[in-house]
Specification:
This protein has one helix and four strands; from the N terminus they run ββββα. By secondary structure, the chain is an alpha+beta fold.
């Protein structure tokens, strides 16, 4: 399940379930794994594409 929660007037937070895989509990580096349905996965891909487009325009 994906939840979108308002943070303030300009931003939202996207929450979803998954597992954090790391060498130990205290490390800041690791990999987040999650299984997503097609619609949230496509939304994520579009978001990534929009970020890349904004960076090339800057």
């Amino acid at each position: 399940m994906v939840m979108v929660l308002p943070v303030d007037d300009e931003f939202v937070e996207v929450n979803f379930q998954g597992s954090w895989i790391a060498q130990n509990q205290a490390t800041h580096e690791g990999m987040f794994l999650s299984v997503m349905a097609e619609q949230p996965e496509r939304s994520y891909q579009l978001w990534q594409m929009s970020k890349a487009k904004l960076l090339t325009l800057a």
